[in-house]
Design a protein that fits this description.
Number of domains: 1
Oligomer: single chain
Shape: globular
Largest sheet: 6 strands, antiparallel, barrel
CATH topology: Thrombin, subunit H
Structural class: mainly beta
Number of strands: 8
Number of helices: 1
Strand order of the largest sheet: 1-4-5-8-7-6
CATH architecture: Beta Barrel
Strand content: over 45%
């Protein structure tokens, strides 16, 4: 990681720690089938907790196609797990489905994730 991107990551982490709140992500993998053993492979559920800053989209960003009214944007610190479309984010007493994930990078290093979520 370059010096500039390292500094940006530290600044982002400090701001998200100060302004953010706890966000829990749940990812479910689908069950499968192993044809060689004729056995079902159970799906797994993975949960991880990070900090994020939730914010509403500006009305000029809402196009009712990609971004719908009521969607929220979560800015997250870089974590060990990158959020994926379909994950469930839980914060403020509600569950939100991940619709889109944008990775903000500097010098090829991930700094923060901006995650679009929808109820």
């Amino acid at each position: 990681m370059g010096q500039f991107s390292n500094q940006m990551t530290q600044i982002a982490d400090q701001l998200i720690t100060y302004f953010g709140e706890s966000v829990s992500f749940t990812r479910k993998t689908k069950a499968g089938f192993n044809p060689s053993t004729s056995q079902a492979i159970p799906g797994e559920t993975t949960t991880y907790v990070t900090r994020g800053v939730p914010e509403n989209y500006n009305m000029d960003e809402v196009d009712n196609s990609l971004i719908e009214r009521g969607d929220m944007r979560l800015t997250l610190s870089k974590t060990t797990m990158v959020p994926l479309v379909g994950d469930i984010a839980s914060f403020r007493g509600a569950n939100w489905r991940v619709i889109n994930v944008d990775i903000i990078s500097a010098q090829g290093d991930n700094i923060v994730y901006q995650v679009q979520v929808r109820k």
